[in-house]
Design goal:
Layout: E1 7-9, E2 17-24, E3 27-36, E4 48-51, H1 64-72, E5 76-80, H2 100-115, E6 122-127, H3 129-140, E7 145-151, H4 159-174, H5 177-181, H6 188-199, H7 210-214, E8 220-225, H8 234-242, E9 246-251, H9 258-261, H10 263-276
Parallel strand pairs: 4-5, 4-6, 6-7, 7-8, 8-9
Antiparallel strand pairs: 1-2, 2-3, 3-5
Helix pairs in contact: 1-10, 2-3
Protein name: Alpha/beta hydrolase
Organism: Diaphorobacter ruginosibacter
Keywords: Hydrolase
Length: 281
């Protein structure tokens, strides 16, 4: 695959993991990324771009992206957003604003696609904040998106979300959570502080992307667990009410991470959805 931007191997060991430098908002940021290919397949067809959760990174997906590649026969791009993994951390005085997910969807991801020559329609697969970013990108750039899979996305701020994030912030300060997360981020305080800081900011309570959901026209599969501790099922149900081509999957015995709690069901659903909605050349 042709790469338009210079790249180098990421500073942490990882097979096929690289870093690319992107211009963003008047500065240069490095983004860690990894290509995956399906076992026993040619990987032809649209690339699946994975967008991680609010505390995620390439490494935190573990083997789920590879399992999706193998099930669908498609290649994948997995990357860590700025502030996460081994991408450029937040600056010391940087505080995210309520439009932080819009910036990722409308600015960072398009720059990454240009740098890596991903101009053809892509599949988007996002979890939590990454699911919201996938929705925003698909709504803004429908001609270059084949479809989207949203795992436990957010379209509004609920009390349950704030309560659970406040508990996570307390655990980060008082338990071994910080140490556990540090395995996945070069600067763990950058990752956690950016995420918890904006979600717990009173100014974020009015954040809502239902208008953007109404502009969603690509095939979309929204998946959520009935026991999600970070949001009610109203999150994906509102996407279905507003979007034009949205299928829902509500999973029992499943919390905020469907790809971990019900991995087999999710992989089968993703495979069937992508096969059903594969564009004909």
């Amino acid at each position: 695959m042709e790469h338009r931007a210079a790249e180098r191997v990421a500073p942490e060991p990882g097979e096929g993991r690289y870093v690319v430098r992107l211009p963003w908002r008047g500065r240069s940021v490095e983004v860690e990324y990894q290509w995956l290919a399906p076992a026993g397949g040619d990987g032809s067809g649209p690339v699946i771009v994975f967008l991680h959760e609010g505390l995620g990174s390439i490494a935190m997906w573990k083997d789920f992206p590879q399992q999706v590649c193998d099930a669908t026969g498609l290649r994948a791009l997995v990357y860590s957003r700025p502030a996460y993994g081994w991408s450029t951390p937040r600056e010391a005085d940087e505080r995210w604003q309520p439009d932080f997910m819009h910036r990722q969807a409308h600015e960072v991801l398009p720059e990454l696609r240009r740098a890596l020559n991903l101009e053809a329609p892509i599949w988007l697969l996002g979890h939590s904040d990454g699911g919201s970013i996938a929705l925003l990108h698909a709504a803004r750039f429908p001609a270059s998106v084949a479809g989207a899979v949203l795992l436990a996305p957010h379209v509004m701020v609920e009390d349950i979300s704030i309560e659970s994030i406040a508990k996570a912030a307390q655990a980060y300060a008082t338990t071994g959570l910080r140490e556990r997360l540090s395995r996945y981020h070069a600067d763990v305080d950058s990752a956690f502080g950016g995420w918890s800081g904006i979600w717990l900011d009173p100014g974020f309570r009015q954040w809502n992307i239902e208008h953007e959901a109404s502009q969603l026209s690509v095939p979309t599969l929204a998946i959520q667990g009935v026991n999600d501790e970070y949001g009610s099922l109203e999150q994906i149900r509102r996407i279905a009410r507003h979007g034009r081509d949205v299928a829902l999957l509500e999973l029992s015995e499943c919390g905020h991470s469907p790809h971990r709690d019900q991995a087999t069901q999710v992989i089968i659903a993703v495979r069937n959805f992508m096969q059903k909605n594969r564009r004909q050349p």
